[in-house]
Known about the structure:
This protein is an alpha/beta fold. The strands form 6 sheets. Strands 8-11-14-17-20-25-28-31-34-37-39-40 form a 12-stranded mixed beta sheet. Strands 9-12-15-18-21-26-29-32-35-38 form a 10-stranded parallel beta sheet, with no helix packed on it. Strands 10-13-16-19-24-27-30-33-36 form a 9-stranded parallel beta sheet, with no helix packed on it. Strand 39 (302-305) and strand 40 (308-310) form a beta hairpin. The mean pLDDT is 94.
Amino acid sequence: MKFTALQIAEILEGDIVGNPDVEVSKLSKIEEGTEGSLTFLANPKYKSYIYSTQASITIVNKTFEAENPISTTLIKVEDAYKSFSKLLAYYNQVKLNKFGIEQPSHIAKSTTYGEDIYVGAFTYIGENVTIGNNVKIFPNSYIGDNVKIGDNTVVFSGAKVYSDCIIGKDCVINSGVIIGADGFGFAPNENGEYTKVPQTGNVILEDFVDIGAATTIDRATLGSTIIRRGVKLDNQIQIAHNVEIGKNTVIAAQTGVAGSTKIGENCVIGGQVGIAGHITIGNNVKIQAQSGVGRNIKDDEAIQGSPAFSYADFNKSYVYFKNLPKIMREINDIDKKVNGNS
């Protein structure tokens, strides 16, 4: 796809300094710009590169004034970083703007779907599925019986949505995601053997939820595993049965949340965090990477460590921990002086 500086300026409501007809077909960092590429300058640390970049078009703040000759065409906007992000979103929208039903694919006769959908080849869509308008389901995906998918949702290649799950509007489900697999429910008998407990619930994703590649969200034993509006999950996350995650919470990669835990709104959870089951984490909580959480957490706490405790206390304690050898030498020296030990 090619765009002219004039087209980009119209999208961003920016002003052109240079050639309005110059075309770009790719994106680049400013220091790696080549002919035909589009870049941006937002961080002053990279200002020197604007005089050497070979990028055909550069998005800059309106306050930018060139101090030396430049070869790139400028598009001046209020905020270069936000404008570039807007352009990326637009580019993605155009790139993913596919329509139609490719073959071979299977769509059950009882399935209903809206306008402008796309279903990629080798996709299976089961009985009584409801699909909204402008939904994109890429090749090799599986949509089980009785699933509901809201408008403008994108399901990337190889994702699996098991039966009875509900996906809201404007969601993104990346490749390798599994939504609605059985939760880890087993009951031991008198012989020490484990019998599977049937998992009869579902998973509900509300609107504007993003699920990263290879993340798994288990169906509830009873009721629903619920991911609230605006939640963003990174790649390779495990969400167990009957978990509930509050709106606008973000969780980084390789985090695991055990069954029946409730996580509040607007939380920020780092990578490789382990969260025990049957606990409650409040709103606006921040959990640092690699922490282990085994207790209820109140609103607005920031915690770290394993087991996790106050982030400020952790940092103070870590200073002492690093200095333990020195502290022990000082204690031994004092003991020698006080007790006359040799």
